[in-house]
Description:
Number of helices: 7
Number of domains: 2
Structural class: mainly alpha
Distance between the termini: 29 Å
Helix content: 55-70%
Number of strands: 2
Order of helices and strands: EEHHHHHHH
Largest sheet: 2 strands, antiparallel
Radius of gyration: 19 Å
Low-confidence stretches: 1-11
Shape: elongated
Strand content: under 5%
Mean pLDDT: 75
Amino acid sequence: MYGRVVCETKHMAGRTWKTEELNSIVDELQAGCWFRGRTADLYLELRREIEALVKCVYNHVDARERMKFYAAIRCWKVRDERTPSDKETWAEWFERVHGEALEAYAVRAAKEGVRQRVTEYELATYGWSPLEKDKAA
């Protein structure tokens, strides 16, 4: 199912699409209209559906989960050090910003394979992943 999704959405039901095909369709809609009335609503609705489908394909990884993963990597090494404002440690900052303790997130991410899912999401979305360099080393 990697890179393909069967649509169960209102506008694209029953068809198998590659995610890049979906994005190109929405981009064509965007280029061909002036965003008035129903056309703008349809564009926004299709964009939301595509984002939901992509999230489903990549096991619930989206830009927010990716940001949380990278924040955890950065914070882990300095978790007991104070932030520049000197009000909290990096572990406390992570918990305040992401709503989950850094240690608990590390255990959950390892258990759920978040690193692999983030890597797959990045490869499919951007064509490369900074996490791939670790494999080459």
